[in-house]
Amino acid sequence: MISLTSPVETRAHAWPAGAKLGGLCLATAALFYLDSLALIAAVAVLILTLYSLPGRSFMASGLRRLARLWPFLIVVIAWAAIEGRPAHGLGIALRMISAVALANLVTMTTRLTDMVDVVAFLCRPFRRLGLQTRALEIAIALVIRMTPVLLDRAEDLMQAWRARSRRRPGWRIILPFTLLAFDDAERVSEALKARGGLISNKET
Amino acid sequence: MERNVAMIALFAALIAVLGLVPPIILAFGVPVTAQSLGVMLAGTVLGARRGVMAVLLFVGLVALGLPLLAGGRGGLGVFASPTVGYLVGFPVAAFVTGWIVEHWRGANLALVAGFAAVVGGIGIDHAFGVVGMAVVLDRSLAEAALLTAAFIPGDLLKAAIAGMLTAALARARPGSVPSRANV
């Protein structure tokens, strides 16, 4: 499973993930307290400059992700314009772009393994309370591994449908699909048990 | 234990796949992804506790940067965008949906599951979604609700489908629907 981390290596890839996440939280909170349009616009320009630093292909993939906001941008700007306060709408729109762009930047420059490490670190106090964090770690790995497997199963089902019907496969496909997922879950749990289960001796 | 973890993980993957397969065309030609249907099913099929864990796992992996949301979206940006409320509301929606299915046992399962999906998957999730949209877009709650009203008909249809599918699953594999396992 491919994560949304950018394949373009940037200097920020090497920064500690926890620091990036903490910085993102602070920056996003601060963004919501900015009121002056000039300041908000300056922040937006600054963030877009950050996108341009690692090169063209990094910037293009970043902007493509931002482009998905367009319906909201139109609504916000048009609505405020109709109400006669276009500057207000522009401010909201720019703030939204900045917040999403900044968050995407962290995702694009942080590897999945580093993110999972942060989760494991945050879980440590719970482990001391006796919570099974190993189950969570295995569950994360299972989802990453099984999503493509289930996607293949869904595609097989849709092909089988198309071979027999002229209509498009509709929601009816979800029932056999869920049954297949149940069977897989059954087999996966057998396999987990066969390999010693979730309780590891090392942790106790 | 192993069975629960496998079931929760597989359901999280199932929610992801339902958002990634080509949009399913509903009755009146509106393409809607089945992702929120997956969240409803997590509640009606797995029940409150396991349902909420499956959905939390899914939402958590989206935050970690996996493109599991409909249309291949994901990453932290989604949590700053206007639709953040729907995502945050997903686990609560699954919990409420599952709780209703677990506690209302007298009636027909399709009916109960459909009703639970309406309350949890639509009522609760839209409540979170509207608040999120109102905050990010700086609008009043009523104005934000207006913006999201267009999705309610499609969601009602999904809730009905969730009800029928849950009953069909319980028939196809008696005992495989953990929310009703000991009926």
The termini of chain B sit apart by 21 Å
CATH names the topology of chain B as Arp2/3 complex 21 kDa subunit ARPC3
User: Helical residue percent of chain B?
Assistant: 55-70%
Shape summary of chain A: extended
How many β-strands of chain B, per DSSP? 2
Strand order of the largest sheet of chain B: 1-2
Quickly count the helices of chain B: 7
Biggest interface, residues from each chain = A-B, 67 and 57 residues
Q: What are the salient characteristics of this protein?
A:
heterodimer, A: 204 residues, mainly alpha, 2 domains, 8 helices, extended, B: 183 residues, Arp2/3 complex 21 kDa subunit ARPC3, two-stranded antiparallel sheet, 2 strands
Short description:
Chain A is mainly alpha-helical and 204 residues long. Chain A is built from eight helices and no strands. Helix content of chain B is 69%, strand content 2%.
Write the layout of secondary structure elements.
The complex is a heterodimer of chains A (about 200) and B (about 180).
Chain A: H1 17-33, H2 37-52, H3 56-66, H4 70-82, H5 86-108, H6 112-128, H7 133-164, H8 174-194
Helix pairs in contact in A: 1-5, 2-5, 3-5, 4-5, 7-8
Chain B: H1 2-20, E1 24-25, E2 31-32, H2 35-46, H3 48-64, H4 84-103, H5 109-137, H6 141-148, H7 152-172
Antiparallel strand pairs in B: 1-2
Helix pairs in contact in B: 1-2, 1-3, 2-3, 2-4, 2-5, 2-7, 3-4, 4-5, 5-6, 5-7
Structure description:
The complex is a heterodimer of chains A (204) and B (183). By secondary structure, chain A is an all-alpha fold. Chain A folds into two domains: 16-110, no CATH class; 118-203, no CATH class. Chain A has helices at residues 17-33, 37-52, 56-66, 70-82, 86-108, 112-128, 133-164, 174-194. Chain B has a two-stranded antiparallel sheet with strand order 1-2. Chain B has helices spanning 2-20, 35-46, 48-64, 84-103, 109-137, 141-148, 152-172, and strands at residues 24-25, 31-32. Chain B has one domain (2-180): Arp2/3 complex 21 kDa subunit ARPC3 (Orthogonal Bundle). The interface between A and B is large, with 67 and 57 residues.
